[in-house]
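Ops channel
N.P.: pipeline sanity check, posting one input/output pair.
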């Protein structure tokens, strides 16, 4: 069994990082609300680095011993985690920070990593290749590996501060809807939220293109890698389940919802055009769940965790153009 964490660990993490992060707003939806449902967006897309991942990275790096800080840190990422580690290292004065990425990462994400002072190294054509090569490099150079959300409970506790912050300020929320990739965020949010309000419901949402968490929990097998079927705009949330998430989620998750790619794309455009909020495809999954599967989501006072806003400009243009052309019968 892996080392676990609890609500007190999340509370301690919040105390540790609260001076460095933004307390992100919980804003009402303009169009989703009705007489029986109040939907609000927890806008981590407005967090430092435009992603929730700064919370986990800060909680880990803030606890490193001085000698490790001097040697430096490294990680492997396809974008947001690398941005978060670079930013956290910058905030904490860690000069030697290396982010290893596979080929094909959007330039906007690479620009952010460089802006925060990290050194980028491209290794491999896929995340799996990059992970193998990158871990070898990090080990040989005695860097501290910043886990993106597999086994390190400090990462989970840091990410869980979203749930702690949300429930401490908005205690009437009865349902929290969380996008899931590896399941680390949902695990952290659930531990924190249930620590403050045990009967709060946690709804996890995955894309049908890669439902790794759903299949792992259904089969009782930890699929640490999982294939992606077809094209998806949820590139940040594909892959396998985190090993700690696999152990802890069965006792924490109240409902799983799988959304189709078409539903996610519609939700992505809806948020930009109607709610005036540009969000990532992975974040759009929770909006898709509410719009297409309201009865499964349930609840009356519902918080939707919008995890990130690092959107490639070309993707945003193409998605909106595609929808407008379809509406005008030009597709």
């Amino acid at each position: 069994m892996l080392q676990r964490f609890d609500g007190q660990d999340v509370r301690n993490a919040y105390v540790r990082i609260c001076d460095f992060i933004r307390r992100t707003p919980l804003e009402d939806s303009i169009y989703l609300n009705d007489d029986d449902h109040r939907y609000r967006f927890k806008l981590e897309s407005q967090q430092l680095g435009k992603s929730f991942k700064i919370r986990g990275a800060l909680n880990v790096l803030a606890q490193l011993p001085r000698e490790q800080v001097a040697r430096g840190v490294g990680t492997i990422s396809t974008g947001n985690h690398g941005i978060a580690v670079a930013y956290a290292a910058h905030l904490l004065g860690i000069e030697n920070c290396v982010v290893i990425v596979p080929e094909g990462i959007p330039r906007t994400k690479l620009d952010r990593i460089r802006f925060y002072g990290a050194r980028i190294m491209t290794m491999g054509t896929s995340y799996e290749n990059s992970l193998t090569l990158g871990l070898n490099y990090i080990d040989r150079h005695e860097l501290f590996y910043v886990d993106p959300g597999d086994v390190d409970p400090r990462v989970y506790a840091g990410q869980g501060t979203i749930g702690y912050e949300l429930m401490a300020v908005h205690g009437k929320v009865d349902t929290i809807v969380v996008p899931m990739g590896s399941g680390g965020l949902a695990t952290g949010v659930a531990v924190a939220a249930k620590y403050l309000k045990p009967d709060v419901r946690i709804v996890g949402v995955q894309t049908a293109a890669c439902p790794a968490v759903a299949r792992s929990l259904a089969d009782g097998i930890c699929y640490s890698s999982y294939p992606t079927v077809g094209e998806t705009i949820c590139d940040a949330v594909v892959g396998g389940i985190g090993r700690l998430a696999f152990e802890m989620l069965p006792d924490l998750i109240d409902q799983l919802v799988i959304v189709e790619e078409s539903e996610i794309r519609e939700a992505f455009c809806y948020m930009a055009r109607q709610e005036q909020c540009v969000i990532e495809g992975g974040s759009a999954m929770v909006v898709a769940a509410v719009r297409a599967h309201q009865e499964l989501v349930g609840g009356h006072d519902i918080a939707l965790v919008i995890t990130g806003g690092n959107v490639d400009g070309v993707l945003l243009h193409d998605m909106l153009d595609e929808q407008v052309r379809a509406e005008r019968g030009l597709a």
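N.P.: looks fine end to end. The chain has two domains: 7-51+152-327, 54-145.
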